[in-house]
Amino acid sequence: MTIDAARSRPARVLIQRAALGTALAVTLGACGFVNSGDDSTEEGGSGGSLTAYVNTEQNTGLAPLIEAYEEETGATVDISSATTDELNQQLRVQLTSGTAADLIRVSPGNSSPVAVGVLGREGELTDLSDASWTDELSDDTRALAEVDGQVLAFPVSRNAIVMAYNRQVFEDAGLEVPTTWSEFLDACAALDAAGITPIAAPFQGGIYFQFWVYALAGTLVYAENPDIDEQMAAGETTFAENAEWGQVFARIAELRDAGYLSDGMLGIPADQGLQSVATGEAAMVLMVSAGLPQLHGYAEGGADAFGVFALPANDDPEATLVPVAPDFLAVNAAADPEAALEFLDFLAQPENVAAYANEMGVLPGLATEVELDSDVLGPIEPLLADGRSVAYANYLWPNGDVQQTMLQSGQEWLDGALDTAGLLGQMDAEYARGQS
Amino acid sequence: MTLTLSRPAVDGGPRATRRRARRARVPYLLLVPALLFYAFVVLWPTLQGAGYAFTDWAGRRETPGFVGLDNFTELFSAPAARSALRNTLIIALSTTIVQTLVGLALALALHSALASRNLLRTMFFAPALLPPVIIGFLWQYILTPAGPLNDALGAVGLGGLAQNWLGDSSVALASVIAVIIWQNAGLTMVIYLAGLEGVPPELHEAATMDGAGRWQRLRHVTLPLLVPATTIALSLTLIGSLKLFDQVYVMTGGGPGYATETLSVVMYKEAFVSGRYGYSTAIALVLTMIVFAFALLQLRGLRRFEVQQ
């Protein structure tokens, strides 16, 4: 044997063994035999440990409460977050593969593949009906949290659709807050005459367009016929057949045709629409209350520069309803529910309901008497206190595809490429497909 | 004197043969981990995914139902999907043709003795280095009705040309195509510059001596020798534009309405918005077949024109 051969053979053997070792590691890792350091489940198994997967807004609001909870109970909460879109994409796969967290953010009603209604019917969520806080669910929230009589979700907060307006612009135009549809049209006409865009319409993507549909439908459709969802599900009526649904789109068309919505609305992204109201280029924007801090941030005067009101849809000021959406947490049925239920009980304590609402500037999730630091939503609180709230119209449609059709075909409708009958017909077709 | 070259004597015997055989196996053994990893993260999911295209899988625990060709029937009959297929093909063909021509023109212009050529090459190539999502957000802002492009047009007295670039369905698709070309023309330019470096200068000198003018040299010397570069440029552009997603999703989300929706965008929405994973996989499969067919046709077609130096 030569010296070279003596050197090369062990090296070769070493390479071969290294290759074999790597191959085994990869294979075993793939089969799940090698734990690559994800020890959160192992270590978290003892004494009140909880994993949570929430959206970024919930994460912000829950952070101080989790700290207090951990201090009070000695339990640990391992929380991770993503934007709602990303969370919706990932959660479905996590639930299917058995890797979802104990506590998860779910959408209301049937509005997405990871909504309470969808997951509840599949048995993916734990029944929370025995929790004491279920007595404090408002009717519209309960309708979205329940599946077959079981409460399956906890509302950490509620968002309302409100019309935000620039106070200075209204003052300069000598306008009062409109309380009826006629007053609203008069205000738009006065603003238009003053050379101000009455309504910022950042309809690129369709998100802000849907707020108009839900806000008007709340008063025009649901106040007139609270059983419309049951009737549609039973096939007794459709979007196209229902006169009130036609009226919703007629109202929006009236604003569009009068030129009260932003020019080039389908090309305007949300942030630019909000900025136009902040600068006074436009006077109003219909939006969700959770977005108000962003709007306030665009103006030097902050929150004081803006006011809000409930969008009227007819000429009876007492008929106006405010669309409200709960932001839900639910307990994964595959998880040990004890720690999650304890944590939800903690969140349901009135001081914690108030803490979350104040931290986020949103409405309290439960119908609990709480003191809010901010009076930004003050103008709509009397309506909510009187029970004049309604869920977003899309939540009890059979799935998210009807809404998606409304958003996309709605852009064609706004552009004039599709008439109202065509749009409602497409929504009906998608509704029927969702039921099959 | 005669020099005889011969192979060194080969060490004979069965032990040496076995040693050589073992040595020959080493490269293959070294490939095993990578192959296993590739098979696990690419091949297996791909094959499994192809199977889901024939099911109604909605991402739920229960076994998905077999639906035969229903997903494909829907894809070719649903107006939205047909529109997305048409948009995908329009984007792919127009991007491929225009981007290749622009890239070629830039390469020819900058393959010269210009003092600032390196600076210009860097400037034109820079957009290709940026992530498509960043490009999407950037141009979404530039192309808004009150954005910098319309402002600039107004400033130079061309306000009449101002458009709602992304919000008007008659111009939105063209706007998206222009952004894609703007981003990637620099990459095509680099491919052609590499090709131009390989054109022997003596061929140009010989042609010049034969009396060929500039246009004739370009047509009969340069372009034939650039066919391999053209093959690469066209293939990359075509494949990239057929599976285009990022810029479209960021700039328009497929809108207004369905005006800029591509197959990739529909695939994404069907899977992650609607939870229709089976249908979405069918779209992916069709898209893969389209890409494969186009790439194959293009490669075969262009190789006929390649010339040997």
From TrEMBL, chain A:
InterPro entries linked: Bact_solute-bd_prot1, SBP
Pfam families per UniProt: SBP_bac_8
Entry keywords, A to Z: Transport
Source domain of life: Bacteria
Family, per entry: Belongs to the bacterial solute-binding protein 1 family.
Name recorded for this polypeptide: Carbohydrate ABC transporter substrate-binding protein
Source organism of the structure: Jiangella rhizosphaerae
